[in-house]
């Protein structure tokens, strides 16, 4: 009897523990605590918003809000998540440009920039420099649309940072290589091995930025997609034309129905009907001409804007390509030093052969 009571008492404990466990793990119905991961994926993050006037403000925004505001899919925001490591990427979307260049991760729209907040020096410098440039250009004619100004600064700071890192690496490694060539030691070999790993990592990052810029320059469609201001103005023009059509149609309908119903067989006077139809035809004709002119001018300016963006990208492609060339030269210098060391080792081995048994 006593054993039965102990058994019953023990059976209550797991049930209670399982109930507490279920409450902890949420609605997944699993013994694995995924609730923390789910909360992390949908929690708010700190963003820096910079508008067209250069005003910067720190905001706490969740993923869903950013997706709705910028019309972006969830996979694009994963590129900006600091918890994941993605190579440098520039994506043109319907209402935004997604930029992931080294430490600069941001979403650029036609009116504002949402910059992933961070204490990294590149992020602070991007926010400060963008605000200063926009405020300084308030009263000056715009040579570039807002989104291109923001994209240009991201490319500029990224290329400058990569070039500075390449020069610093070359400054550090060349004296070690020269010392190793004259005096082979374990310490110098270890230092060269470490520098060689850093060189490989930096080369891959520079190569990815170069390939991303080249990919954009080779695709006119991708470059056209990135012209957000033109697309926004075009959509506003279409909306204005639609409202004009509705107003003209309602006005014409009122004009055609103004005749007094004297009898059931009484119809609209021919003069009123003719005038109403003439107004409708004139309105639709003018709207059609306006739409055609807008379409032609948009396509013409679109080609010009693609050329403008292509020139902008080409300028930074040259910079990053030169950085990659410098890193390749440094890699060849390391290889030449290794060949020299191997020759010296073989010569010393031949000079002092091991005694035969």
Name given to the CATH architecture of the largest domain: Up-down Bundle
Major beta sheet summary? 6 strands, antiparallel
Give the integer mean of the pLDDT values.
77
- If you compute it from the alpha carbons, what radius of gyration comes out, rounded to the nearest whole angstrom? 34 Å
Distance between the termini: 86 Å
Count of individual domains: 2
The third-level CATH topology of the largest domain is: Methane Monooxygenase Hydroxylase, Chain G, domain 1
- Tell me the number of strands: 6
Look at the structure and name the CATH superfamily of the largest domain.
Answer: Magnesium transport protein CorA, transmembrane region
Total count of helical runs of at least 4 residues: 10
What share of the residues lie within helices?
A: 55-70%
What is the overall silhouette? Answer: elongated
**Structural class per helix/strand content?**
alpha+beta
Spans of at least 5 consecutive residues whose pLDDT stays below 50 are: 1-41, 256-268, 286-300
The topology string of helices and strands comes to HHEEHHEEEEHHHHHH
Q: What is the CATH class of the largest domain?
A: Mainly Alpha
Strand order of the largest sheet: 2-1-6-5-4-3
Percentage of residues in DSSP E strands: 5-15%
């Amino acid at each position: 009897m006593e054993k039965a009571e102990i058994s019953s008492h023990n059976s209550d404990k797991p049930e209670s523990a399982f109930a507490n466990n279920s409450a902890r793990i949420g609605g997944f119905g699993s013994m694995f605590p995924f609730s923390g991961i789910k909360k992390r994926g949908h929690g708010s993050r700190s963003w820096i918003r910079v508008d067209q006037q250069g005003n910067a403000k720190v905001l706490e925004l969740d993923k869903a809000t950013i997706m709705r505001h910028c019309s972006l899919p969830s996979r694009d925001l994963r590129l900006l998540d600091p918890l994941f490591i993605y190579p440098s990427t520039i994506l043109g979307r319907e209402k935004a440009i997604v930029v992931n260049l080294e430490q600069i991760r941001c979403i650029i729209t036609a009116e504002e920039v949402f910059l992933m907040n961070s204490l990294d020096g590149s992020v602070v410098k991007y926010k400060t420099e963008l605000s200063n440039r926009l405020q300084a250009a308030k009263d000056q004619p715009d040579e570039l649309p807002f989104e291109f100004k923001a994209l240009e600064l991201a490319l500029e700071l990224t290329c400058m940072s990569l070039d500075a890192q390449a020069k610093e690496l070359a400054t550090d490694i060349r004296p070690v290589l020269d010392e190793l060539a004259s005096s082979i030691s374990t310490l110098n070999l270890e230092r060269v091995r470490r520098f060689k790993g850093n060189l490989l990592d930096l080369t891959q990052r520079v190569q990815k930025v170069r390939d991303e810029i080249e990919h954009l320059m080779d695709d006119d469609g991708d470059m056209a997609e990135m012209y957000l201001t033109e697309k926004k103005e075009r959509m506003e023009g279409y909306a204005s034309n639609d409202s004009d059509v509705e107003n003209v149609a309602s006005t014409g309908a009122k004009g055609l129905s103004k005749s007094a119903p004297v009898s059931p067989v009484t119809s609209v006077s021919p003069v009123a009907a003719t005038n109403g139809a003439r107004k409708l035809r004139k309105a639709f004709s003018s709207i059609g001409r306006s739409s055609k002119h807008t379409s032609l001018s948009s396509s013409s300016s679109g080609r010009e804007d693609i050329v403008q963006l292509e020139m902008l990208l080409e300028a930074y492609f040259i910079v990053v390509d030169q950085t990659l060339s410098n890193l390749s030269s440094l890699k060849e210098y390391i290889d030449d030093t290794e060949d020299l060391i191997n020759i010296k080792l073989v010569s010393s081995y031949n000079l002092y052969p091991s005694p035969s048994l």
